[in-house]
Every structure is written in structure tokens, then in C-alpha cells.
Write a structure and sequence with these properties.
Oligomer: single chain
Number of helices: 13
Number of strands: 2
Amino acid sequence: MFGYVTASMGELTQEQRQRYMGCYCGICRAIGRNSSGPSRLSLNYDMVFLALLLSSLYEPEEEQEDRRCLLHPLSRRPGFRSEAVSYAADMNVALAYFSADDHWRDDRRPDALALRKLLKKQYPEISRRYPRQCRAMEACIRELSRLEKEACSNPDLPANCFGQLMAELFVWKQDLWEPYLREMGEALGRFIYLMDAAMDFEKDRRKGRYNPFVSLGEADRQRWEEYLVLEMGRCTRSYETLPLVQDKALLDNILYSGVWIRYRQRKAHRGAQEEPT
């Protein structure tokens, strides 16, 4: 259910690309410090957006570390270290733990089982550091599981679950920015869930797996797209109320372009397949 909140790399300047990848490397290193080296296998780009957003909003003290790593042993790569990056790293591991569990239950994938076992050792410590966020994750995942078992045909209900989960993650500090971050996270979470359902429609229908759009008994792609546009509009409306300066152009790239990349690619591929020969 992850991999949608990413940058449109071809539209970034060289400076923006370096900043984006530096934040990615910073999260990777923070996962190693906070959890374990092997837990870095859970790393994904979605939490880079959260780290950049919180860094821009709160402007915590930040350091740059230039280091080599196992994946890039020949050259030093910059990585940013801050409280916001560390928080995003912990949320990355917690979300990856539940995502691996979901993949294991759905597909019985051995790699998902191995990752779940690995991250299960790290999750209790993250839960101790961030009890509010982790309680929300656990409650939302339980409710999602219930709705999926009942084959809920109303997309709003499971989308609301994931929206509530993301809303709690976006609220790093309970302060004056909480309402705006909560609204933004909720809309983005609903967008991610509905995007995932739209992208996996054919595969889920073929394999007989739960998908709210499959449960509706129709493939109304125009209606799905309207759902997605509505949720992203709600997300960006809250986003634009925040006093962001640092990395604003990079964040704009992700929300206004990057989140649509995979959907547009799939749509173009489907259109090419449907063209008469």
C-alpha cells in the first residue's frame, strides 16, 4: 500500500534531487541507529515526504553526514540528520511492520514473513517512544481487517481507516499545527488507500482478494479517478495553509505530480492495450 508518495524525479533540479536523496539516506541511517541495520530493508520513499514536510514546518536543527554504505561503497553520499528525520524513520519501520504482515496474510510471500519477523523485534521500542501513533496504527489495522473480512463494498469505510492512521502519523507534535497536519494526513491516507485499490483492481479480482472497488462489482475507472482527485484536493488545501518555505518546491513536486506517476503510467499502458490494431 506504499510507494505512491514519491517525487517526480525528472522534474527536479539537481539541487532538489540531492536534497531528496539526502533525506532518503538520512532516514536509512536513522533506521539503523534507532532500530537495527537489517531493518533498513524496510526503507521506502513515502516517509521522505513526511520528513521534508516536518522539517520545513518546524525547522529542527539539521546536520549533514557524508558517508559510504554497503550499497554505495565507492563514494560518500550526503544524508541529513535531525529529529524530524529520526521520527520519519521510526514511522517507516512501524508502517513497514504492518505492511509486511498484510502482504504475508494476503499472498503468503516468504519475503514478507521474513520482514515481519525482523521488524516485530523493533516495533515494541517504537511503540514505547510513540504510543499515540502506534495505538492508532493498531486500531486502524484491526478495523481494516474486519472490513476486509466482511467484504465491505463501501470504499469510504476502509479508506477512512487508513486516513485516520495517516492523520495520527502526521501529527508529530500536538500544537497549533495539529489540526492542519491531521486533515492533511487523513486526506493523503484516504488517497493512498483508494489509489492502491484502483491500481490493484485487476489483480485482486483475478485472485479473488478483497478490494472495495471489486466488491462494488464494477470497473468504473472514471469514478475512481474522481475519488482520487477529491482526496488530493483536500490534502493540498490543508497543505497550502502551512507556512512552508524550506523545500516547498520539492514538496509541491511530490503532491502535485509525483503521487500521480504510477497511476498515469498504468492508465497509459491500459490505453495502449485497448487501442485497435
